[in-house]
Specification:
alpha+beta; Double Stranded RNA Binding Domain; 5-stranded mixed sheet; 1 helix; 5 strands; 32% strand
């Protein structure tokens, strides 16, 4: 299963991050790192819940990060994380 975390800075300065492949996994943070960390944690919790309830079977997971232009036009550096 390939998951991506998309993140960008809102006009008010907060950062938003979401995992498009998992509806409802959308979080805010005061920094890009905080938002991405929260999104990763929430995505893993959702996947764990699905496994516990038998909704999904165990699979390899790959998580990558994608940036969008923030309000200031600054492009944060993308980083990657893979969990197998």
């Amino acid at each position: 299963m390939n998951l991506s975390i998309e993140y960008e800075q809102e006009v008010d300065g907060r950062w938003i991050a979401e995992v498009p492949e998992l509806p409802g996994v959308l979080v805010y943070g005061t920094t890009a790192d905080e938002a991405m960390s929260k999104a990763e944690v929430l995505a893993l919790r959702v996947l764990a819940e699905r496994l516990e309830t038998g909704e999904n079977r165990p699979v390899s997971i790959s998580i990558s990060f994608a940036t969008a232009a923030c309000a200031s036009g600054h492009q944060p550096k993308p980083i990657g994380f893979w969990l197998h």
